[in-house]
Amino acid sequence: MPEFGIIGYQQLRENMRILYVRLSENFLNNFSLQYKPEMADFEREAKNVSFEPLQKPNYANMSK
User: Fold this and answer.
1) Taking a C-beta distance cutoff of 8 angstroms, is the pair 36, 42 a contact?
2) Choosing a second label site near 16 at 20 to 30 A (CA), which of 8, 39, 53, 55?
3) pLDDT tens-digit readout, 20-60
4) Is the pLDDT of residue 12 over 60?
5) Which residues contact 10 (CB under 8 A, 6 or more apart)?
6) Rounded Cα distance, 33 and 11, in Å
7) In sequence order, what DSSP letters do the residues of the chain get, joined into one string?
8) Which residues, including other chains, have CB under 8 Å from residue 18's CB and lie 6 or more apart?
């Protein structure tokens, strides 16, 4: 969702994830929002935040 941002998840434990959203600059500017500066540090250091899909599509099966 390029106009909104990137949606991912943060792995807390093996069986527990929470939603994580990184809002786009466009969205932030349109609504006069800004990230706290410490969020940039958190995102840079976070090893358990993933913006990859939880389940990757199987394009071979989808084309059948």
Assistant:
1) no
2) 39
3) 788 888 999 999 998 887 877 777 776 777 766 666 667 77
4) yes
5) 17, 18, 20, 46, 48, 49, 50
6) 26
7) -TTTEEEEEEEEETTEEEEEEEE-HHHHHHTT----HHHHHHHHH-SSEE-S-SS---HHHHT-
8) 9, 10, 12
Kindly state the tokens that stand for 36.
């706290």
Alpha carbons 54 and 21: distance in angstroms, whole number:
14
pTM for the predicted model, two decimal places: 0.53
Environment class of 11 (CB within 10 Å of its CB; exposed 0-12, middle 13-18, buried 19+)? middle
- Residues 6 or more apart in contact with residue 6 via CB below 8 angstroms: 21, 22, 24, 51
